[in-house]
Amino acid sequence: MIRRALSAALVPAALAIALAAEGSGGTPHVQIKQFAFVPATLTVPVGATVTWTNADEEPHTVTASDRAYTSPGIEQNETYTHRFTAPGTYTYFCALHPHMTATIVVQ
Amino acid sequence: MERRRFMQCLAWAGTGLVWAARGGVLSATMVGEAGAAGSDFTFAQISDTHVGFAGEANRDSLGTLKDSIDAINALTPRPAFVVHTGDLSHGQKPGAFDTLAESMKTVKAEKVFYIPGEHDVAIDGGTEYLSRYGAGTYENRGYQSFDYRGVHFVGLVNVLAYKPGVGGAIGDEQLAWLRKDLDAQQTSTPIVVFSHVPLWAVYPAWGWTTADGEQVIGMLRRFGSVTALNGHIHQVLQKVEGTITFHSARSTAFVQPAPGAAPTPGPMKVEATELRRLLGVREVRYTEAAAPLAVVERPLA
């Protein structure tokens, strides 16, 4: 009886996390497309790993505004991942095209 | 020729007989006389070679690089030196710096001066670029100044402190170095400044500006003749502000849209017949101590 109640409680919680991730299959995902990060703001839970995929012919980077982390050059169709372990608002940009800026909100 | 030897050659010219051409007439003068410092010379600017680029906008960026070097080598008189205003490589692609160095060996000039573009330093913060081109620059930081026949040249780096959402930046340390460097120059000395990103606000929405560029321009205002050359935007644009003329340069690799003429900057495909007209190099001529330098565009077609 208690176990079934716990399962019932866990399923909605998992759904909530999946809905926050805005990606296919619940994986937090940002697309780099036409010199922009899509979505510009992504909210993820603490401990989530975000995946970026570059759809442009041009290489881009994912570089923290405070330079805490940076991807190497991401070629077309390549991906980059970064795990966010602490809550906060993390702005980043493309080091090759600095007008490309975006945010990850971790909560 | 490495830099120290080049400077020694200049020093030799300061102690011996110098053949100089002024107004097309050859004459020999003993150095020490006022003549030699004011003699004519030219130099070439090459920019945004983006070695490693193979996108739709130009599938043969190595071919257009070779043609651009041929254009420099065809210049008469031969340029005294060449300045590369950055984006040597495209995103530091593996092998790109080596290929660029091999190509530049075919340039017929005594010396090539380099400054980096963001494509040369964004991936590793400048380690690879400075290991190759830091020697001879101030504290191996990539920026430098030198004098040639009475003209003072300054190479600035505005891509190592790239500002998110803004564009290029010089940074406080380099600004302090620049102030000290320019304080030592006379107002009558012609100044040539080269940078990768434009020092002036060409189009801030695309990052085509330098966050602290106004501070540099402020330091340059007192001089009688300032020529500011840059790359980055892959097109020729000019601006005159008092005694300062700014000239952005073509790329040898690909074209970019005019400010605001497209949703974003970046490689722009043009008609095949147009491409070579929109790529190229530049020749800069110094003819008299007081006159502004003459900037002559040399497109590939």
Structure description:
The complex is a heterodimer of chains A (107) and B (301). Chain A has 107 residues and is of the alpha/beta class. Chain A has a single domain, classed as Immunoglobulin-like (Sandwich), CATH 2.60.40.420. Helix content of chain A is 18%, strand content 37%. Chain A contains 1 helix and 8 strands; from the N terminus they run H-E-E-E-E-E-E-E-E. Chain A starts with a helix and ends with a strand. Chain B has 301 residues and is α/β, with parallel strands linked by helices. Chain B folds into 2 domains: 1-39, no CATH class; 41-299, Purple Acid Phosphatase, chain A, domain 2. Helix content of chain B is 24%, strand content 22%. Chain B is built from 8 helices and 13 strands. Chain B has helices spanning 3-13, 61-73, 96-104, 118-121, 127-133, 172-183, 213-220, 272-278; strands at residues 17-22, 25-30, 41-46, 82-84, 112-114, 144-148, 151-155, 191-195, 226-230, 238-241, 244-248, 280-286, 294-299. In chain B, helix 6 packs parallel to helix 7 (213-220). The two termini of chain B are 31 Å apart. In chain B, 44% of the residues are buried.
